Amino acid sequence: MHKAIVPLGCVLCLLLGAGGASAAGAHQHGVAQLTVATEGNRLELELSSPLESLVGFEHEPRNDKERKAVQAMKDSFRKPEALFAPSVAAQCSAAPAEVELPGGDSKDGHADMHAAVAFECKTPAALKDLEVKLFDSFPRLQRLKVQLVAGGKQSGTELTRQKRRLAW
Ligand SMILES: [Zn+2]
After folding, report:
1. Cα-to-centroid distance, 58 and ligand 1 (Å)
2. Would you list the domain boundaries of the chain?
3. CA angle 100, 9, 24 (to 5 degrees)
4. CA of 60 to the centre of ligand 1 (A)
5. CA of 113 to the centre of ligand 1 (A)
6. What is the pTM of this model?
């Protein structure tokens, strides 16, 4: 009796299939979208944010200062533990996030970045919450619209600079 192995990120695929198109249209400075999914020993996070809210501008970097700002943002996603803190008891660790940046200037002057983070947890039963520390690294970020998929249930909520902890 084999238990079917769910392809990585599949929960997110389903979610994105259901609500991805509308989420992509919701570009609002200071507001980012975060999908949080637990699956077995994995915790998967997918962030979509206006570039403005992370680096302060949305055009192609035009000078060294702007290039450095983009590089610093990308570097911060190399250490996802500094941006997202799952329950300590679950002993989760993450590989560097995959960051996707728009290439070239967009027609309407707006641009989003996407990042995907996968944590693997040694004690997934203890995985009960997530503190989002993005707000410390990115002062322009005000709100996070969160879609949470945990224990087979899906729910939506919102985090702010004051309310950073997501529990399930
Ligand atoms: Zn914008």
Report:
1. 6
2. 10-167
3. 50
4. 13
5. 11
6. 0.84
